[in-house]
Amino acid sequence: MKTTETYHVPVLLNESIDGLDIKPGGIYVDATFGGGGHSREILRRLSDGGRLFSFDQDADAERNIETVAGGGFTFVRSNFRYLKNWMRYYGIDHIDGLLADLGVSSHHFDDAQRGFSFRFDAPLDMRMNKRAGTTAADIVNEYSEERLADVFYLYGELKNARRIAAAIAKARASKRISTTGDMMRAVEALFHRERGKKEAAQLFQALRIEVNHEMDALREMLLGATTLLGPGGRMSVITYHSLEDRIVKNMMKAGNAEGKVEQDFFGRISSPYRLVNNKVIVPGSDEQERNPRSRSAKLRIAEKR
After folding, report:
1. Residue 101's beta-bridge partner residues?
2. Are the C-beta atoms of 296 and 240 separated by less than 8 Å?
3. What is the rounded average pLDDT of the residues 139-159?
4. Which of 62, 83, 223, 255 is 20 to 30 A (C-alpha) from 271?
């Protein structure tokens, strides 16, 4: 049985929460509750008057709320893309800080039945929210070959995306691709021997992002946070791959996900944020050794002007 500690080991725990510069009586959001590690530390730094709203759409994560329950804690069973709507629902018109630990938790990779990993032969699902939505199997069997290639190229950054899409189209013509094993058998001949695991991971990443609309959700959450954060409020975001990191970097630098820079008359960049760390923060060697998931982590922190 998974405990909250093994469900998800929080990455850059102290660095990310120190970056929030928590006010004991402030209002904070943990956009990615998971095993509750970051939420517990935020709550530890809040006084009785402080409040924490923690988001997660995964029913598995919801089982961990008993470890952090308290008078100032509210669990929101929803995708963080609806941050602004939920804050309005709770009567909150501003927040003092938001933390997001993006990507997939160790729990998801280790739970064979969720279909996030090619290590197991399991149903090709990949939904963060198991209650609704399109599965990865639906996508690989129903998307056109051209659309599949676009997904693999844009979200997996796979140079041979078109060949992979063609191999999937050929395989599904004779039999529905239903499991991770079916998927790997359809494409494994196209992977380079020395880079096979990395390319498989990129393929699964692309499908996961498409299944959960991760890039759109991230953009909406960051825009909502920008509206909600008061002057001096902090945003602390941990990313794991270049696609999400680029969006976060652009938002903090330019105030939009595309990175379109606006300048004033004097040529100064006009942005709602001031960067707290000009250089990304990465885990130390000790943390990387203890928690392999942290090896690709990057922490960016910004303060609302």
Report:
1. 238
2. yes
3. 97
4. 83
Closest C-alpha among 193, 109, 206, 115 to residue 157: 206
Strand partners of residue 74: 53
Average pLDDT estimate for 37-59: 95
143, 149, 151, 157: CA torsion to nearest 10: 160
**Angle made by CA atoms 166, 172, 178, in degrees to the nearest 5:** 125
Per the listing, tokens 């499991």 go with 179
Which tokens in the block code for residue 177? Answer: 């691709």
Task: Tell me the C-alpha distance between 62 and 5, whole Å.
Answer: 14
CB 180 within 8 A of CB 117: yes
Residue 286, classed as helix, strand or coil, is helix
* List of residues 6+ apart from 138 with CB closer than 8 A: none
What's the token pair of residue 91?
Answer: 């009567």
Alpha-carbon gap, residue 303 to 29, rounded angstroms = 15
Cβ(80)–Cβ(10) below 8 Å: no
C-alpha torsion sign, points 289, 218, 127, 32: positive
pLDDT, one tens digit per residue, over 103-122 is: 775 544 455 555 556 667 89
